[in-house]
User: What shape does this take?
Amino acid sequence: MNEPRRMTPTRTAVGALLRKELLLERRVPQVIPAMALFSVTTFVVFRFALDRTSVEGNVASGVLWVTLLFASMLGANRLFVTDHEEGGIEAFLLAPVDRTSLFLAKATTFFAFLLLLELVAVPAFVVLLLEPGLSIADVGRLAAILLLADVGIAVIGTLFGALAIQTRSRDLILPLMALPLLVPVIISGAKATAPVFAAAGAGGLPGRYLALLGLYDLVFGLLAYAVFDFLLDD
Assistant: This one.
């Protein structure tokens, strides 16, 4: 009588998948260079399109968040491509692991990609479009907002990246599905960072927008975690 296969602990599976994702990106960099290059190019375009050497307040906040949002879509589109083309998803479904471990690993990977993107994009934004720059306190405030927003973007990007990869028009389907749901993240992030970029200096961070970002992360994180298993079945 055959013994049932033992399930691999979720933490172990997530760790193995995460190492695989990061090692693959390290060996063959694709996602991060594309996102970073898009961001820097967009800032250059904004500089000449606005015909201004610097922006501030709401304009600066809007430029930064729009750029980061569309750059993140490039990363989300590539999250599952290698697994889909090389049969990695089918192999994962046959493995004795909790399927939500794939979601956790991919979302964590995407979150890490967003952090690396911002390490390039934010300094480029400051150099190209922001004067006189950011103080240490401003950088801390901006980092807190970006971290909260990155969680929401990573969750939504991973969820719809897994759904779009099953279609023929994934490059079109993913932005059409993900962007409307990310509107609250972008609005909250832009409103929260506007005081940081204000000409008069950074004021206190609007608590209601930080709370909205945190609530968004919690609600959509739990929702995505709950439906991801069924999404793979379909």
About this structure: Confidence is low (pLDDT under 50) at residues 1-5. Residues 149 and 165 are 24 Å apart (CA to CA). DSSP finds nine helices and no strands in the chain.
